[in-house]
């Protein structure tokens, strides 16, 4: 019954549960599907030199000014006051972002990223870079925590679905003795035929679609549109 | 899109997330499928006069002595040292429990029950009393939190599946704007054809089946074997 020769693959459904996991011995994948981590891989795939995740809007403004960088981020799904750009992946075309530094703050994703700072390695995951994430995790042969950013600590559907998609793809390489991972995988398997349809009941879908962002949501649920691996090095997200 | 004329139905997947919910304005259903809440309805259905849930083994022993009551409970899935009985529903046949008081402490369920003390009403739910729980919730027309006891704060499959079963049965009477509720329902719908089979990968299944308790698990996943409603009154669980 034990598969002790394989590393562990676990899913943490909310930052408020992260203390229950052994972060220090694991690679942590930060998951904030709508939309921070989808935007992060998109910006890097389109040539951003690096992305600096910060906790507050104030830091974002200050660091942005010092570095003459793009300041981006949202609070409650909208561009945060004082910042120039939001966290829609469509804002970060190659024309716009290539060769530039981006400073990013979001409601949930950047918070979790800072909480996981003691991990062996932090990377970010989303459907647009799912293959890059899975290839990396399989190659490392280390314990993995798929960390859902959630919504103000409440479990959300989109991050859970992505975690489940990763479990579904790579479970044979890992010991999956984590009910959250099994639950996420079951959710994904039940929904993968039409993720967009499955998302229509999600609270964040309603929040975003109220702002007219359905194209964002479709992009953020589609595999491999920006298939690169963002890794955290010295507090900055760069291509892995 | 709003259904504000209906009360809210939400699912809390772990006690560590309960602070995110408005307990004071809600009925809370305590869910500890394997095995505390399955055993609670079974003991009451078989004639126990009341069940006193306590946090510690010491309290259990002391109150049991004062009241000449049955002391029951487990730690980590086994009968706790110093107690006479475990929390297998099969220990509480009518012959044994009728007319008696039971003092109960468990790893997870009794903890959540005490955390939810400010709720409008606390009841306990499990597959053996799912119909009684659903009928009650529909009749009350109040906000509901389905509170999973989980396993030492980690989300578990069996409590999530039960919460999903309740959502599936009564969602038309409620406003379900809670991703955890939608996730639990999706899980249940994907697994309901054979809950026992679905549970075979669960961490707690392995924990219990190591102790030879598969008959317990089958009973605890079967609807309406002890279809009564335990409600908390003055700190005691009695028939509703």
From TrEMBL, chains A, B:
Could you tell me the superkingdom of the organism this chain comes from?
A: Bacteria
SUPFAM superfamilies hit by this protein? ComB-like (SSF142823)
Cofactor(s) annotated in UniProt: Mg(2+)
The family note in this entry says: Belongs to the ComB family.
UniProt entry keywords in alphabetical sequence: Hydrolase, Magnesium
Which top EC class applies here?
Answer: hydrolase
Does Magnesium show up as a keyword for this record?
yes
Q: What is this protein called?
A: Probable 2-phosphosulfolactate phosphatase
């Amino acid at each position: 019954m034990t598969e002790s020769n394989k590393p562990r693959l676990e899913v943490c459904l909310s930052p408020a549960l992260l203390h229950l996991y052994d972060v220090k011995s694991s690679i942590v994948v930060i998951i904030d599907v709508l939309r921070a981590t989808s935007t992060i891989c998109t910006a890097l795939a389109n040539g951003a030199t690096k992305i600096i995740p910060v906790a507050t809007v104030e830091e974002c403004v200050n660091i942005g000014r010092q570095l003459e960088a793009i300041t981006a981020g949202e609070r409650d799904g909208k561009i945060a006051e004082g910042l120039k750009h939001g966290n829609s992946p469509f804002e970060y075309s190659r024309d716009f972002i290539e060769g530039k530094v981006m400073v990013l703050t979001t409601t949930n994703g950047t918070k979790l990223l800072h909480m996981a700072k003691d991990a062996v390695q932090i990377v970010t995951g989303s459907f647009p870079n799912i293959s890059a994430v899975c290839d990396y995790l399989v190659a490392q042969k280390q314990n993995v925590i798929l960390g859902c950013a959630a919504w103000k600590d409440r479990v959300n559907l989109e991050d859970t679905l992505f975690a489940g998609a990763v479990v579904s793809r790579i479970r044979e390489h890992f010991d999956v003795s984590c009910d959250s991972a099994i639950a996420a995988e079951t959710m994904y398997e039940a929904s993968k035929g039409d993720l967009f349809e499955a998302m229509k009941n999600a609270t964040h879908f309603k929040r975003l679609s109220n702002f007219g962002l359905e194209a964002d949501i479709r992009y953020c649920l589609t595999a491999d549109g920006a298939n690169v691996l963002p890794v955290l090095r010295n507090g900055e997200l760069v291509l892995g």
